[in-house]
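Box 3.1. Reading complex inputs
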Amino acid sequence: MTNLFANLSEREVKKLMQVLKSNTITYRKNINILSNRTRDDYIAIIESGSLQLMFNDYNGNKTIIEELNAGEIFGSLTYSLNNDEITCITKEETQITYIEYNQITNGEIIKNDFYIIFVKNLIKLLSDQLNRCNQRIELLTMRTTRDKLLGYFNHQAQIKGSKTFIMNITFTELASYLSVDRSSMTREISYLKEEGFIKINNKKITLLY
Amino acid sequence: MTNLFANLSEREVKKLMQVLKSNTITYRKNINILSNRTRDDYIAIIESGSLQLMFNDYNGNKTIIEELNAGEIFGSLTYSLNNDEITCITKEETQITYIEYNQITNGEIIKNDFYIIFVKNLIKLLSDQLNRCNQRIELLTMRTTRDKLLGYFNHQAQIKGSKTFIMNITFTELASYLSVDRSSMTREISYLKEEGFIKINNKKITLLY
DNA sequence: TGTAAAGTGTTGCAATTGCAACACTTATTA
DNA sequence: TAATAAGTGTTGCAATTGCAACACTTTACA
């Protein structure tokens, strides 16, 4: 169950979904899920699984814009999907719940006293997503790969509360997240190790500065 | 009056602000407005004026993360401001309304029937901000300055509904938005002109492809 | 209205980076 | 468990980019 339903009982969630006229779909791996929903005004909640939002540029290249995981929301509330340059692919079996945006304020739902909890959860989810986006923008606007790496490591250290922490994504994913070439990133990491800025043991990073 | 109060009468807005215990502050130009509010959980609405959110890196450089204009919101709902590497400076005289996040669902406010309009406006604002962020991420993740420029121009053409449109920011601001060196960007624009991709007359861009 | 500030365009040069092509290790799954 | 896919590390080379230092134009404002 995602954060959208935090502090709600199972019964309340059931009622909510019913009144919101939500529907849940389970997709197999590698399915393009935006195919026929691109122009609807809806909220999609990832109940389980994960997605990749990709941009197809003019010469056929595909760039990963972002990865979406269980608990996150997407849809028109988060991304203008009104062009066919964007595709959204399931990375694994993925369960998604759809809610039409206008249902959020329909006449019946606001009668329920737990409605305010739902709204607060939704605002929190959007807010969290926005925080993540801004955090990423902060890194993406840095000039060099070195700055991006150190920016990322610093932020992780801050979150984990320690100068030693475990990476919870692969280096390949990190390169994609920072939008740099993976091999160049590896090279820069080597330099950082040589120059004594960091120490790396498998997925364990230690900041030495 | 910002979008947060769309579809609300002046009387309702007044009531709302009162119940939300909001307060409005007017700042002069070049004021650091985050100085003593960084750890509060609040929403700030820019009533008028504009701001620059900046990142101060380890060697004292300042990078503009984003510009915030009238009608936009910021604060903990949009950005984790829990480090002192971020500063937020007024670009001109700027009026800001602060609302504590928890007031949004206080006992008194939910009694008002116009409350749901306010909530819907807030969700819309967050959603718009998120759309803008994701749009920018799409551009920032592009590999070359050329791709970023064409990506930006395409998006503008799509918004304006024409292959000819007027830039509503300066080229200097565009370079900052795309996070590339301004002079390098100008060089790339020259190449695009030479190669017949675009035509530029002052602020009027025409896409020739 | 005159002066300062901001924006624009250009170019040489060095540094960074992406790309490509490897070899090798670790996960995944049929 | 064997085979396939995904992830990691390295390196040469070329292309892109940032930086710096200009000159010039436009805008802001005292």
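In summary: The helical segments of chain A are 10-19, 115-140, 145-160, 171-178, 182-194.
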